[in-house]
Amino acid sequence: MPRELNIGGLSKETGVKVVTIRFYEKIGVLAVPSRSAGNYRIYGQQHVRRLHFVRRCRELGFSLDQIVDFLRLSSEDSSSCSKVCRIAERHLKDVEAKLADLKRLATELRRINLSCNGTRPMSECRIIEALSARR
Question: 1, 39, 7: which is closest to 24 by C-alpha?
């Protein structure tokens, strides 16, 4: 017999906050569960699987819109996963661009930190000065 969970149990099992579960139900990412005789939500393993999928996608930086697309595409009878691959490819390009920006930021922060020895008065702080300068 499939294990049934209340919303707190689902939250605990998936690591997704209760408020987020309710939000996902509201926007259609998570199917609205059946209700008990006492009008409590009853979740099943399909909800657990869906939330694990959504949480993993979020951990990897996919947007909610991209996740909705993944879910929609996964339920279609398509002959290939080319649309899913395109979404992932676009996301990879975005991640690589962010990494390049972060590397530039790290280089700049190293440069700024080298200019400060921590002994000057605040009015002469090289870090504040560098951050205030126009580029």
Answer: 7
Q: What is the DSSP letter of 72?
A: H
Alpha-carbon distance of 106 to 65, in angstroms, equals 30
Averaged pLDDT of the chain: 90
Consecutive H or E run containing 42:
strand 41-42
Structure tokens at 47: 């909800």
List b or e across 15-27, with b for residues whose CB sees 16 or more CB atoms inside 10 angstroms: ebeeebbeebbee
Question: Which two structure tokens, joined as six digits, stand for 14?
Answer: 């998936």
pTM: 0.78
CA–CA separation, 92 vs 84, rounded Å?
Answer: 12
Per residue in 67-115, pLDDT (tens digit) is 999 999 988 877 788 999 999 999 999 999 999 999 999 998 888 888 7
Taking the C-alpha atoms of residue 32 and residue 23, their distance in angstroms, rounded to an integer, is 11
CA–CA separation, 11 vs 71, rounded Å?
20
